[in-house]
Amino acid sequence: xxxxxxxxxxxxxxxxxxxxxxxxxxxxxxxxxxxxxxxxxxxxxxxxxxxxxxxxxxxxxxxxxxxxxxxxxxxxxxxxxxxxxxxxxxxxxxxxxxxxxxxxxxxxxxxxxxxxxxxxxxxxxxxxxxxxxxxxxxxxxxxxxxxxxxxxxxxxxxxxxxxxxxxxxxxxxxxxxxxxxxxxxxxxxxxxxxxxxxxxxxxxxxxxxxxxxxxxxxxxxxxxxxxxxxxxxxxxxxxxxxxxxxxxxxxxxxxxxxxxxxxxxxxxxxxxxxxxxxxxxxxxxxxxxxxxxxxxxxxxxxxxxxxxxxxxxxxxxxxxxxxxxxxxxxxxxxxxxxxxxxxxxxxxxxx
Length: 351
Description:
51% of the residues are buried. Helix 3 packs antiparallel against helix 4 and helix 8 packs across helix 9. It contains nine helices and twelve strands. The chain is globular. The longest helix is centred in the N-terminal third of the chain and has 23 residues.
């Protein structure tokens, strides 16, 4: 009888495991997580902004970043490895406002900000006001892993980067003609506003192209990272949400977010953390929480933009309220899926 009872208990336990096993468990009977990588290249892009050649280049860069990051996950790398690899490629692509291709400040300089966070440990690293670091995301990770600090700025941050062997470049490396012309247009608009005693209205595409990545690895751990050149025509050392943990970047054990939008409002809303707090504390489904913050809370405050969000169950979302947002994801089939404009088809898993 005892043996029979033991067998019955084992059967019931097996049935219970089958019922509660998460959707991302594989079909081999193991509990291995199916890794996922989600990226963005910034909100604000609209139909007509890009030439056919520019659009093709942007899509190719997004796909390359997805493949690079996912290769790390397939090789057993961590979520941090995947996020770092994907963002490094996006920083190198001049199509985006991060690294090479960053927008210009009022003084005609490129000023870079970045952050990264490990959801498994809660550790984070960030840097702001960079002028010579080729790949800011590498510095953010070094600050997190090789210093007792979370954020460094300016010359001190670059001194630390040099000590860690992180490549530094001449500031001219970041310049692209397209970004330079965007600054000239912004300066002309500013001059016209001053001449007519009108308040200066920041251009809606001032934050165009910030990049970010989220990853879920085979251990079920999440990570998030964001990198940006900030806002066109910014001055006085302005810093947006991208390097601020909880505003533009957040990751915990159940949720990860990277934002792209009007940074002042993301800071005031603690947008990235707020999305994950709604998931963790209120039990909101991740897509609902992300939509509420990005498409309701921030617009009510006067801001706009978008974000990517990823849960530990593999569910992800791309909320945005601009005409377009560079975005993409890659999962177990290894096929990168990318989109730019609102009406672009973007296949989603299980849909």
